[in-house]
Amino acid sequence: MPHSLLLRDVRPMAGARADILIRDGRIEAIGTGLSAAGVDAVDGAGAIAIPGLVEAHTHLDKTLLGMPWYRNEVGPRLIDKIDNERAAKKTLGIDPHRQSMRQAVLSVSKGSTHIRSHVDVDTESGVGSIEGVMATRDALRGVIDIELVAFPQSGMLIRPGTVELMDRALALGAEVVGGIDPAGMDRDPKGHVDTVFELAERHGKPVDIHVHELGELGGFSMELIIERTRALGMQGKVTVSHAFCLGMDDKAYVARLVEQLAEAGVHIMTTGSASRPVPVVKQLRDAGVVVCAGTDGMRDTWGPYGNADMLERAMLVGLRNNLRRDDEVEIALDVCTHGGAKVMALEGYGLEVGCHGDLVLVGGETLTDAVVTRAPRHLVVKGGRVVARDGVALVEAP
Description:
By secondary structure, the protein is α/β, with parallel strands linked by helices. It contains eleven helices and 17 strands. It folds into two domains: about 5-50 and about 350-390, Urease, subunit C, domain 1 (Roll), CATH 2.30.40; about 55-345, Alpha-Beta Barrel (TIM Barrel). The chain has helices at about 80-90, 95-110, 130-140, 160-170, 190-205, 215-230, 250-265, 280-285, 310-320, 325-345, 365-370; strands at about 5-10, 20-25, 25-30, 40-45, 50, 55-60, 110-120, 145-150, 175-180, 205-210, 240, 265-270, 290-295, 360, 375-380, 385-390, 390-395. Helix 2 packs across helix 3 (about 130-140), helix 6 packs parallel to helix 7 (about 250-265) and helix 9 (about 310-320) crosses helix 10. The longest helix is centred in the C-terminal third of the chain and has 18 residues, at about 325-345.
């Protein structure tokens, strides 16, 4: 249900001090000396107010948070990690609902108000992970919004029966069609891309495809995705995650790809990876491409890193892109807020009158100060309801 709240003495986007009145879940007024009879008031003590952070790419069903320490001795290839993870789900007893609750609640404590999660669909676990994360989505409704991507982590065409399971996951209520490395995983780039877009057209859903493929191979996959986006009129509804190929040395080829992405309205998700070439955020944004970010896998069988903190992710994206000026670091924060909101097509997102009352009060003198110091989250508000205080969510994880 919608809530009402009056935040006194805050600095919207690190600007002048003001009050923010949220009534029935929406921002009703921003100004000085605001009052509202019968509405709870909180003293912001000059904290910076920013819109809720947006975790636009993670894998809620895979985290090992709260479980015994996992000793990682997995091989270096992508397929090594995928095969190991599929087996580990059974041997470790990873429960998708329990584990996704743990990560989602941690996200709340860090100031995220929206999550897009890629959730595994395969012939061994079926749609069990989808159902588990859906249960989390329902349990946390009103605390954080969770959007599910039906994600064929182990491939589709190379594992008969996966396409039918993807279809079932979308019918159950997964909001986005996922895909992965059309050439490198399924070894049938045209078939993979055609299948993903056929599912999207059948169910009326957007698309978010992982493309880890490097260099010209990744560029070829991107070209196929761009072609299908144009052919089906899906501009603004397609995201390519990782897109490492956009960091290749052939800058002229990359420039052409970026131009085509902009023309087709295809979005890009980056984690600011430290281990691969990455898309250049400023180049993409200057061309008109929407860029979002996410923590990706977190404390899982792939690696031990991650804490669900999208303010930290903004710092990492800034570091990986050599964003040093204050106005440049603010770009990294925008990627982790408005960029994610645009990719997820969030209605009423922002820190303006009429927007949903989803915001975070953070410490720091400026926005850049808040990013580089990963400033404390004093208060997290969702739809006018306080859902976390001083870095602690007000809902418990299992």
